[in-house]
Amino acid sequence: MRKGVFEADGAGLYYEVRGGGPALLMISGAGGDAGYYDGVAEILSDAFTVISYDRRGNSRSTGRSGTPMDLAVQAADARALVDGLADGRALVFGNSGGAIIGLTLAALHPEAMTGLIAHEPPAVNVLPDGDPGRGFFAELAALYAQGGAPAAGRRFAETTRGEGTYRWPGELWKRFLGNQDHLFGTEWSGFAGFRPDETALKSAPFPIVLGAGAEDRGTYYARPSIEIARRIGAPWAEFPGIHMEFLRDPARFAAAVRVLATQLHSRDGDVPALWKGAAQ
Is 79 in contact with 112 (CB distance < 8 Å)? Predict the structure, then answer.
């Protein structure tokens, strides 16, 4: 694994690169960083060049500010990493808020992508009017205004199925807690206002797959994936486990990502270099 800091529009983005083969950019969700994918990235590095990073203002990256951040900035950062580390094009996997960023990247910078796997984007604005899930972001914003990051963070954990049933790596947990004010004070409004650009996603020149975990049926962050897939005519896939299965059981989650990423890559008719000539 090699790591470094990539300069992108006034921020230094900490990144890690593992393996060889087609580029696979993995975007973490709210409060997270490259550490979310340590286990998965190691497993997939035998077939992919796996790029993970700390989003602007999070953990080991710089660029933190007290003003709301537009999703276009998050997408531009991802695009800059693809340009700088993957020769301009990559498969993209995103979980949760990272899936929202992936969908934004697909709409704004389709030329940078060869495929997208969007796992459980909490795009609550696509849920029906009156659905209680639509109030999630407003509820936590109010809690943050009243009780700060601890109050909002506790409620966030309560709404995420499976949290508390396994142990996070210690350093990752410390970084996650250090990101809470940035999440609720800077990033939250962008995630809250997200509505997928259905026209752009329908016309994307690469395959898009939406998906959710088998144990997350009915949650506010799993149901939007089904609705987005329906609206844009994209396939939907069931993943194993919970929202953060990549932390609870990296091997199990990596197996699912491997299948989808390989299929998405090969749909363009290309074959990873390490497989070429293997039939002889």
Answer: yes
- Total tally of structural domains belonging to the chain: 1
Tell me if 236 is assigned to some domain: yes
pTM for the full model? 0.94
Continuous H helices in the chain: 38-44, 71-85, 97-108, 136-159, 170-178, 180-182, 188-192, 198-202, 223-232, 245-248, 250-266
Within-domain flag for 274: no
253: domain CATH number is 3.40.50.1820
Q: Is residue 278 a part of any domain in this protein?
A: no
pLDDT per residue, tens digit, the chain (280 aa), is 999 999 998 899 999 999 989 999 999 999 999 999 999 999 999 999 999 999 999 999 999 988 899 999 999 999 999 999 999 999 999 999 999 999 999 999 999 999 999 999 999 999 999 999 999 999 999 999 999 999 999 999 999 999 989 999 999 999 999 999 999 999 999 999 999 999 999 999 999 999 999 999 999 999 999 999 999 999 999 999 999 999 999 999 999 999 999 988 877 556 656 665 554 4
